[in-house]
TrEMBL record:
Pfam families: FtsX, MacB_PCD. It comes from the Bacteria. GO terms for cellular component: plasma membrane. Belongs to the ABC-4 integral membrane protein family. It comes from Malaciobacter pacificus. Transmembrane segments: none annotated. This is ABC transporter, permease protein, MacB family. Residues 20-243 form the MacB-like periplasmic core domain. It is a multi-pass membrane protein.
Amino acid sequence: MLSNAFLIAIKEIRRNILRSILTILGIVIGVASVIGMVMIGDGTTANVTEGIKKLGTNMLTLRVGQERRGPPRSDNTARYFDEADMEALKYEIQNVSGVSAEDDTNINVIYGNKSYASEVVGANNDFFQVKNWELDKGRLFEESELNAGKSVCILGTTVIKQIFEGANPIGEKIRLKSFSCTVIGTLKSKGAAAFGRDQDDIIVAPLGMYQRKVKGNKNIRTIILSINNSKNIEKAKKDITALMRERRNIGIDEDDNFHIRDMQDLLSTMTSTTETLTYLLGSIAAISLLVGGIGIMNIMLVSVTERTREIGTRLAIGAMENEVLLQFLVEAVVLSTLGGLIGIALGLGIGFGAVSMMQLPFIINHEIIIIAFVFSTLIGVVFGYFPARKAARLNPIDALRYE
């Protein structure tokens, strides 16, 4: 009986092909919207996650002043950190594998007749380990260069492209402000950060040289630390807080005049936010599936009216109510399922095009595809039941008299 109802449904769909296409259009758009939206959201989530991981997921950032909302900034009333604080953090806190200052200034870099504004960072060799940054060519700073604050620097790939047009800059001298600096190394590219900032637009110099020739003072606003294992981060944060309170003579009843930012917390927050937005957009798109279901119900009601005499004939020659109900219900389900399949293909195409244009990772969410397909099929059952029930309950005599 079910196979016979399926064959009749296919026959009716083929007989009114244009109306069938218009009937499933709402389902197609609904399913395609859901899948496309979720693909863009998943791609954005993956992109943000990857961007934060590039910064170093086991990294802690210690900044001067109390934590405030908005972009990173320092509290001018709080005492700055110094190199003795860095030494204490490195040798007195367990599970710390790297400590570096991270102070930066945007200045013009000059090489020959070329000039380019870039970010100059004062740091030590632990900076590269904390930031998960690999050397491409050349070498890191020697201990003597760090101690003496020599004018040497390591360049990011964007600076190399802008100043040296991709040529090997090792051994060349660039001018920063009024002094020259010898390039001793280059970094591998890290690409854009989570918020689109170009991480490769950077020049790293010894902290002593940066403080003396660029900044003009020894104030350290930010210290970055890497923890050897993510399981030890919470303990390390407590130990760092205790050490800093002691070194900065903060009383028991006084608030901290520094704060610690945890990249794991940032990663969790950003991932949770983008996932919430993804499901919000997907839920909004799913509303069009309900609209598509109402469209199916309307067309099926019209179909029942048009085929009233056919239904009356079937009932008159002995067809059971359940057989008529099943016939129209199967027809509605076939229509909605067909719409779901076309919508999945269209949604994948739209999603692929969108993430390619936005340069996001292409991620197929199999769970959402299955949910969208099952939901489109259920819509056929729910919205097809009322027209099918109406057809099954027709009086055969009234149906045969229907003009």
